[in-house]
Write a structure and sequence with these properties.
The structure is a single chain. 35% of the residues lie in helices and 18% in strands. The strands form 3 sheets. Strands 1, 2, 3, 4, 5, 6, 7 and 8 form an 8-stranded mixed β-sheet that branches. An 8-stranded parallel β-sheet has the order 11-10-9-18-17-16-15-14. A two-stranded antiparallel sheet has the order 12-13. The longest helix is centred in the middle third of the chain and has 17 residues.
Length: 536
Amino acid sequence: MILPRVKNYAAGKGRFVIGQEFLYCTDGNAAARNLFEYWCALYGISARETERNRASVVFCRADVKHYTVGITEDKICVRYKNATAARDAAATLVNMAAEDENGAYIPCAEIEDYPDCTYRGMMWDPARKYDSIERIKRLIRQAALAKYNVLHLHLNDDIRFAIRSEAVPALNNGAMKQYSLGEMKEIVTYAADFGIDVLPEIDLPAHATPLLRQMPELHCRKNGEPLGKWTVCVSNEKLYEMLDKLIGELAAVFPYKRMHMGGDELAFFDFPDWHLHYEWDRCDTCTALAEQNGFTSVWDFYTYYAQRVYAILKKHGREMVIWNDPLDVTKPVDLPKDIRIQYWRIAAEGRGPHAGCTPQKLLEQGYTVVNSDVSNAYGDLYLKEENLRVWHPRALAGGDARAETYIEGGELCFWDMHQHYEYSVMPSLLLFSDRLWNRAPLMENVDAALSRQIFGLRFENVFSLLGQRLFPLDRQARFDMRKICAGKQEIEAVRGRLLWQVRCGFGEPELIRPYIYVLDELLARLGGGESEKLDG
């Protein structure tokens, strides 16, 4: 089994032996070729694109739903619909690969496969902490192997703007490292090489603390005095002039047709001591704007802002994506239906239009939705293994039939930079990928698939050993000791073999290292003795 699971699989007899030279013809599909070359390099296999009549793995465009694969002892034939399908077929083949004493092989089979969701996203948060280019590239490779097609980058928050802007220098903060435009272009190009679009996010009008500090002219004001520290003044023309420059700059870096404009968490009135809320209902120019336009609710300020930003995005050839919680759609709102709404929660009382931003209401109004429900799609503090086995982005409470048409997929969100990401990202990424690919619950044993896709061909079944796939995200309670399925000696043996892999460079060492540390911690709890240390 692999993750995500293929739709239809008929086992054949025998195996396709990979050998020391992997000859393929990808029919010009660069992402499929790059996956093969990356994977073969991990295991010292010579990968080479060649003519169709000499290749043992052959791709052909065909009128199929997504892709099909026929694997015999002599040849692998892939029929694919488009470039993404070719990349997904290549991911299936390398994820199926196994190894025994006779070498690496792919079992013979007939496969027909296609995803349930057209949008299969992962969000990363470089706004709160600078992450190395190489780590982001590693995430891209693993997301491609798990058949994601969008990487959403959250570029600004209440810490900083992640990119060093040339168009709006006031966004730059010399005290914190930022990505250059060139570095971000490198990331975008690398993602495209693996069949992934990069969706940039400018998160406004809230989360604006550093922006207001560096551009105080964007404050709301009362009698000339600045108000608040959390949201920009939506009646200020300088805001839209700045966004026009910034969106134009980002459009030149990110060719993806969409741009995310945030909009979440406009207020925390349930925590008044935080002083994190809008000031539009007190601001002189905002209240004048409300009177001029006949606003009947404070959420009309956000609608006005979204209309203005929508027009700027259209000018630069981009479609708009926003979070759901600033929208009050208990009544029709004057926002175009081609805006994509990313749902993450129903706003709590005091934080947004509680009744107006539900996924059901959004579907009623005809908006297309990406589902990132906080309880099922947030990898920072909320993911639970039992949820990831059964949740599906289109399975809304009440069984709304419109979900099949208007929910285009889901997105797994990794907010901030938590220490547990070292060992929680990969199993989360793989388990969630199945929820985007398949509606049927993931009830089978997935330990071998997780282990092979993380640790490589000569995999150690670490998850079966530990009896759990997602360890508690609180570091102080990492293990449910009642689930541990192995004794100290077996854990020490597995740790030793993983250590060998890292030292020999067999597989992706940076994916394996965190689990050696996990086993170290487990051995300490079990009273293990001194183990051979991992360098670095």
